[in-house]
Write a structure and sequence with these properties.
CATH class of one domain: Mainly Alpha
Number of strands: 12
Largest sheet: 3 strands, parallel
Helix content: 40-55%
CATH architecture of one domain: Orthogonal Bundle
Protein name: Glutamate--tRNA ligase
Enzyme class: ligase
Strand content: 5-15%
CATH topology of one domain: Glutamyl-tRNA Synthetase, domain 2
CATH superfamily of one domain: Glutamyl-trna Synthetase, Domain 2
GO molecular function, one term: zinc ion binding
Family: Belongs to the class-I aminoacyl-tRNA synthetase family. Glutamate--tRNA ligase type 1 subfamily.
Strand order of the largest sheet: 1-2-3
Keywords: Aminoacyl-tRNA synthetase, ATP-binding, Cytoplasm, Ligase, Nucleotide-binding, Protein biosynthesis
Length: 468
């Protein structure tokens, strides 16, 4: 079988984190089998579909590096084909025109509720002739759903699932204004796009029962279905904004990297032994939809952040400078000259060890690009306010000014010798020096900081503190 999967979002909002996982699973399954991954924008809801949402979906997929094959399919552009399919079913006696008014449909539902039955359409026009239709009423087209037997889904994740056909009413295929319903459009598009596997959330299970009936009526083979459990919040409730159910662009803006996001989403419901960090190459090699669990996964922001920290540390320094530069330009008014970029690059190996996100990395790197005199945070001010610190920093400055070579070995030897002569611990020397050089109480190793800043900048920052 030639594997063809698809991701088919409705462009009514951002690319939700759950939808991103669905796209990832479809992409991985197609790539694992050497097949195709297609993108279809289901924009038939003209009132809610927006160009901004389409742009957000496309940019989100690109950021996640989930490339699709062939051109994007826009569902609304295929409305004429959907209409043709509905009328063909009427001609074959497998669908019919229904002339019920909205008021009549509501009366049916009210009566069913009063009698303790499920409120649904009662098939009033199923076997009537259109010649009996009242004047001035534009009909819908409804599918003649089998009244006996059952519809069965052989689901690759959930196993076999059955529903009695008597529980399903005759669904609308084509509305009175000739616009196709979601049920019809999805079936026609999936069939004509040669989709072999439909992988989507298990909230679509009821839709699948109905869509299988359309496939049966059309005489078409259906794709294989996989319904993956939804993602819940840490409290077990349906995922919402308070749990972190944001668009992927929000995570990008918070400083997450795409490989970390994909790694984390992959592990929500699927696993490969005890492996936590899984490369894109490994994911393509190992992924099989049959290995997805049946239980809902729980979104854990702390875990995502931990995975992201790993990928930040693994990134090469040049890449990280490129990624943090636009963030630094947003959070500071300093022009990033060639000199400052070189300084960032020198310091990146130490900075990235302490950062969990690109945002944190940029904030931690601010001290490298600040103009002098360096701003001091509250803790640094407290450290430097100690009455003995000025004398200590003058001695440090005198020693550093006489060093022949500004190298880590020389710096460490000189400062340790000074600490021993003053009979103080190295930390008692390093803390005020750190505050003077970085404006903070926490930073990479003090010798890394001095090497990164260089001789001239380091000495001038110490002098600034002694002066002011």
């Amino acid at each position: 079988m030639n594997v063809v999967t698809r991701f088919a979002p409705s462009p009514t909002g951002f690319l939700h984190i759950g939808s991103a996982r669905t796209a990832l699973f479809n992409w991985l399954y197609a790539r694992h089998h050497g097949g195709k991954f297609l993108l279809r924008i289901e924009d038939t809801d003209r009132d809610r579909s927006t160009n901004e949402a389409i742009k957000a979906i496309i940019e989100g997929l690109k950021w996640l590096e989930l490339d699709w094959d062939d051109n994007i399919i826009f569902q609304f552009a295929r409305a004429a084909r959907h209409q043709e399919a509905a009328h063909a079913l009427v001609a074959q006696g497998k669908a019919y025109y229904c002339f019920c008014t909205p008021q009549e449909l509501e009366e049916m539902r009210e009566k069913a509720r009063a009698e303790g039955r499920q409120p649904r359409y009662n098939g009033y026009w199923r076997d009537r002739s259109p010649h009996e239709a009242p004047s001035g009423v534009c009909p819908v087209i409804r599918l003649k759903v089998p009244e006996e037997g059952e519809t069965i889904i052989q689901d690759l994740v959930q196993g076999e699932i059955r529903v009695q056909n008597a529980q399903l009413d005759d669904m609308v295929l084509l509305r009175a204004d000739q616009t196709p319903t979601y049920m019809l459009a999805v079936v026609v598009d999936d069939y004509e796009m040669n989709i072999s596997h439909v992988i989507r959330g298990d909230d679509h299970l009821t839709n699948t029962f109905r869509q299988l009936q359309i496939y049966e009526a059309m005489g078409w083979n259906s794709p294989l279905f996989s319904h993956i459990p939804l993602i819940h919040g840490e409290d077990g409730a349906k995922l919402s904004k308070r749990h972190g159910a944001l668009g992927v662009e929000a995570y990008r803006d918070m400083g997450f990297v795409p490989e970390a996001m994909c790694n984390y989403l992959l592990r929500l419901g699927w696993g490969h032994g005890d492996d936590e960090i899984i490369s894109r190459t490994q994911a393509v090699e190992w992924f099989d939809i049959k290995d997805v669990g049946r239980s809902a996964s729980r979104f854990d922001m702390a875990k995502l952040t931990s995975v992201n920290a790993h990928y930040v540390r693994e990134r090469n320094d040049e890449d990280l400078v490129r990624l943090v530069t636009p963030i630094l330009q947003k959070i500071s008014d300093v022009e990033l000259t060639e000199l400052l970029n070189k300084r960032l690059l020198r310091g990146m190996s130490g900075l990235k060890q302490r950062a969990r996100t690109l945002q944190e990395l940029a904030e931690n790197a601010l001290f490298l690009i600040h103009s002098r005199p360096l701003p001091l945070d509250e803790k640094a001010q407290k450290i430097l306010a100690d009455s003995e610190v000025a004398s200590l920093l003058r001695q440090v400055l005198n020693i550093l000014q006489t060093l022949p070579e500004w190298e880590e070995k020389n710096l460490e030897e000189a400062l340790r010798t000074l600490a021993e002569s003053l009979q103080i611990k190295m930390g008692a020397l390093a803390q005020p020096l750190r505050a003077a050089l970085t404006g903070q109480s926490i930073s990479p190793g003090i010798f890394d900081v001095m090497i990164t800043l260089g001789r001239e900048e380091s000495l001038e920052r110490i002098q600034d503190v002694l002066k002011f």
